[in-house]
Structure formats: structure tokens, C-alpha cells
Amino acid sequence: MDNPLPAFRAIRTFVFDVDGVMTDARVQVTESGELLRTMTIRDGYAVQLAVQLGYRVAVITGGTSEGVRLRFLRLGVDDYYSGIRDKALTLDAYHERYGLDPRQTLYMGDDIPDLPAMAIAGLPCAPRDAVPQVLAKARYVSPQGGGEGCVRDVVEKVLTLNGQWPVS
């Protein structure tokens, strides 16, 4: 694997999957059939900071959850695509809609449906506990697992390399 640090510096757009990236890939199922997920506040902090600093942030997920949509809306993420079967098609349309350069896009996914979108992004990334096929295609594998800070890891790298991560 080559050194991805120069690619981190060039990132202007973050695109994330939800289950297995923002979460630990597990869901709790209530008696009424509702699916409950757990996300880390630290990932949320990094996402909202990136949005405040002018980075584009999008979520492309196969899942459908009003609670998850509302969480991202509260973090400032306006581009939330749910129930998506073809993530590459959605990512291409997102790039075209905003005139974005795919080489400046970081995409983080963890499972087979993410592979086509990862192939489009300039910096394909994965949490450490992604499936083997995704780990093999990732240019950067976070030392953090899904739902354990992998999102913060990549956002913090980009912001730090661009002199924008807050330090005390």
C-alpha cells in the first residue's frame, strides 16, 4: 500500500456509509421491528467540524432510518442518501450535481456494496474491521473500527494536514 498522506491533504469531500462505518455494524431489533444503532459522539464532532470548515460531507447508505437521517441533519449534513442499492451511481451523481472532483473525495465503506463507490473516490478508506474484500481495495485502513472512531480518524487527518484541526 502506498503512502496515502498526500491524498489526505487534497481531500475536500467526505462520503461515508453508515452501518459498519458510523456504527459497529450491529443493530438492536425492538419487538416492534425498529432497528437501533449506536454511534460515537466523537465521529459526530469531526463531521460537524468538517462541515463548519466548508468541506462537503455526504452519507450514502443502503439502510433507511429516520433517526439516522435526523442525526446527520443535526450535524449539518444536507446530502443524505438512504435506501441506496447502487452507491457508485449515487456518488457519480453527487459529484456531477456539485461539480466535484472525485480525486478530492474520501469514501469510507466497510462491505461489498461499498466497493464500486470506493473505486470512484480518490481516497478509498475502510475501518479496520471491514470485510477482507474492502480492506484489499482501501488505500487507507483506519486503526479504528466501525462505530469506534474511524470517521474521526480520517477527518482529523485531513484537517490536521491542512492546519485546521483545533489544538490546545
Topology:
Elements lengths: L4 H6 L2 E4 L11 E2 L5 E2 L4 H12 L3 E5 L5 H9 L4 E3 L5 H12 L6 E4 L6 H6 L2 E4 L5 H6 L2 E2 L8 H12 L7
Parallel strand pairs: 1-4, 1-6, 4-5, 6-7, 7-8
Antiparallel strand pairs: 2-3
Helix pairs in contact: 2-7
Folded structure, characterized:
This protein is α/β, with parallel strands linked by helices and 168 residues long. Helices cover 38% and strands 15% of the residues. The strands form two sheets. Strands 5-4-1-6-7-8 form a six-stranded parallel sheet, sandwiched between helices. The chain has a two-stranded antiparallel sheet with strand order 2-3. The longest helix has 12 residues.
Keywords summarizing the entry:
168 residues, alpha/beta, six-stranded parallel sheet, two-stranded antiparallel ribbon, 7 helices, 15% strand, globular
Question: TL;DR of this structure?
Answer:
By secondary structure, the protein is of the alpha/beta class. The protein has helices spanning 5-10, 41-52, 66-74, 87-98, 115-120, 132-137, 150-161; strands at residues 13-16, 28-29, 35-36, 56-60, 79-81, 105-108, 123-126, 140-141.
